[in-house]
Design goal:
about 40% strand; two-stranded antiparallel ribbon
Length: about 140
């Protein structure tokens, strides 16, 4: 498992963007690494909105690649899959479900311009009462954008 110093000093390339390590949280008996990024949704708007994105992934899935000095996500029994490419400024247009680095993902749009990215199969644990409390997620997540 990657140590805290390595997590803090490197970035996670995910969905065509760079995410910084925020924290590690424990839900049930499993540690999750939380990565975050804040960006402006559309500067073409009169009043652009800030979008706060968080990627939550089992910490054991996070690996350090020395050659590129970046963090990769590899599910147990898997290998590093291709990173997904996306157009800049299209956060609201992203599909709710997609594949990145060989892992299937679910994107949730939450109130206040928050986006939460969870690996498929982890939603039940992370969106249960304890997971929501630890992540600071409101009681009812909105689907879509």
């Amino acid at each position: 498992m990657v140590d805290d110093e390595t997590l803090s000093m490197n970035v996670l390339q995910f969905a065509g963007k760079s995410f910084d390590y925020d924290s590690t949280v424990v839900v049930g008996d499993l540690e999750y690494a939380v990565f975050g990024r804040t960006e402006t949704e559309s500067e073409a708007k009169l009043r652009p909105e800030l979008v706060r994105m968080r990627v939550v992934v089992p910490r054991e899935w996070v690996h350090y690649e020395e050659a590129s000095d970046t963090l990769l996500l590899i599910a147990p029994g898997g290998t590093a899959g291709p990173a997904r490419r996306r157009a800049a400024g299209a956060t609201l247009l992203e599909p709710e479900e997609f594949r990145d680095q060989g892992i299937d993902w679910h994107r949730l749009a939450l109130a206040g311009g928050h986006r939460l990215y969870l690996p498929k199969g982890e939603e039940g644990r992370l969106l249960g009462h304890e997971g929501r409390r630890v992540l600071g997620v409101p009681p009812a997540a909105e689907r879509g954008a």
